[in-house]
Amino acid sequence: MTNNHFPTVSGALVIVAALAASANAAERVAAAHVAEMPAVATPGNVAEAEAILGAKLLVCNTCHGGDGVPRSAATPVIWGLQENYLLKQLHDFQSGNRDSEVMAWMATALTPEELEAAAAYFAKKNWPARPASAASTSPPAIVAVCQACHQQNLAGGLPAPRLAGQRYEYLVEAMRRYAEGERTNSPEMMSIMKALSPAEREAMARYISSL
After folding, report:
1. Burial 55-82 (b: 16+ CB within 10 A, else e)
2. What percent of the chain is modeled with pLDDT above 90?
3. Which residues of 170-194 are buried (b: 16+ CB within 10 A; e: fewer)?
4. Rg of the chain over CA atoms, in angstroms?
5. Quick check: pTM over 0.85?
6. Which of 8, 62, 95, 173 is the most exposed place for a label (fewest CB within 10 A)?
7. Using an 8 Å Cβ cutoff, are 52 and 36 in contact?
């Protein structure tokens, strides 16, 4: 899920072109396998999701990367995030509870069944490998507050998503938006971020991205 930043015009054209080309390919696949494949992927079935939603999921690579590494530092890693978190964010983009014109456009192009399949598809992907050049930093004192929901080592779980290894630029901006009331789809995060200074948020983002 991208931050609230508009892609370039060329980026938008790439997305539209990819949708058109992939949609045609998806139609040919569906026609060839109509007796084999259900109209909607079974929740949690990655192979079906990839076959049926191939066109729409490939478009995600434009921003989030075909190998799970986002093309822009301000775009978050979504490969390997918790399925329940991904599904909630897609619903929030679709309903307008989370603001991003690009993601709202993407989410509203999916049926409820496709939203579930897309969340399952990306949740089952492996989180991108940590760059060899990444330097570790000391944990700030406030990290204990984050671990209450994001779990030990900030690896995530049912209460909250993985943060460890998330992009620094995305984290800093997401924290700022929560603190300043621009992102409102988690009252708990809004409350926590409002209690932190910009310097504390920056230190936390620096630490989390180094994990």
Report:
1. bbbbbbebbbbeebebebebbbbbbbbb
2. 60
3. bbbbbbbbbbeeebebbeebbebbe
4. 18
5. no
6. 8
7. no
